[in-house]
Amino acid sequence: MANAGEVKVEVKDAPDEVDFSKIGLEEALKILQASTHGLSTEEAQKRLAEYGPNKLPESSRSPILVFLGYMWNPLAWAMEVAAIISIALLDYADFALIVALLIVNAVISFVEESNADKAIKALTAALAPKAKCLRSGEVITIDAVDLVPGDVIIIKFGDIVPADIKILPEEGGGGGEEVPMQIDQAALTGESLPAKKFTNDVAFSGSTVKQGERHCVVYATGVNTFFGRAAALISGTNNVANLQIIMNRIGAVCLLTIGIWVIIELAVQFGHYHHACTGGEEGCPTLTNMLVIIVGGIPIAMPTVLSVTLALGAFKLAKEGAIVARMSAVEEMAGMDVLCSDKTGTLTLN
Fold first, then answer.
1. How far apart are CA 42 and CA 210, in angstroms?
2. What does the alpha-carbon distance between residue 267 and residue 259 come to, in Å, rounded to a whole number?
3. One of 146, 151, 184, 342 is an active-site residue; which one?
4. Which residue blocks in 142-284 are alpha helix, DSSP H?
5. Is 151 a catalytic residue?
6. Model confidence over 71-85: pLDDT tens digits?
7. Global model pTM greater than 0.70
8. Can you tell me the distance from the alpha carbon of 151 to that of 37, in angstroms, rounded to the nearest whole number?
């Protein structure tokens, strides 16, 4: 269940956050500077520019930085050092092979995750919700992303609530007993059964209408909604995939081993034999030995093999209709023994 503090919203021109679950309709409409007849088109456009679109902010990343990110890990560092030593020794064959492995690994990961990202964006665009809204005294259908605080919308059975709303009185309800709406908030609050909502109650963005049809006034959109605030908390976490943790550990062990042998090599060659180094091919046996140590000390093909394996797994899942947003998720799902789900169907973290 949501507690009272979770429905407080920051409103323009209001000194403090407003808890719309605890105030009456008249006060709510006064704060929102709206009426039960909705907003005019001009006022809605003005508020859209002021409050922003009714959607969560999308994080954008530079494709170049994303691509280079696949070359930023301990195993890649060792391979990059080996490539530098190879070019210093004019060993073009080894240099080309090492660079090719680095690029192939990065390209496979980048292409697969880019395709998944495009598929997710296309799916999101296809499923973009609509909303019936009162604008300038007329009922029109608009994209939910264009809703603003103060809008009056109509929700009915089967609709997904497009923003945080406060329910208005039934039209022509008279003095009879009010028939409540039934709204499923399981995905947000964990309630197993639809919640009964009466006049003056609030409902959250993302919940589903199971019964009834009512006019409602929007009081929060985008990141200011209950769902938006929860999403902001989740997006603040930085979870590292289990596969990445394992790869980093393997890379760290390899780098440590390589570092020890490089120190021994330098101590023997320069401390005991007093070898000198010159540039060019076979000009520095010490560098040649270091190249052998580095290349031999890392599983040079492992990142590429892992990328290809995960890409094949993502391709197979795609044929079954599943979109893999991160390739590491293939390994995460493969290592799952038990999937825990509670009575609402939401995933449970123990």
1. 33
2. 12
3. 342
4. 186-189, 226-235, 242-266
5. no
6. 887 878 888 888 888
7. no
8. 9
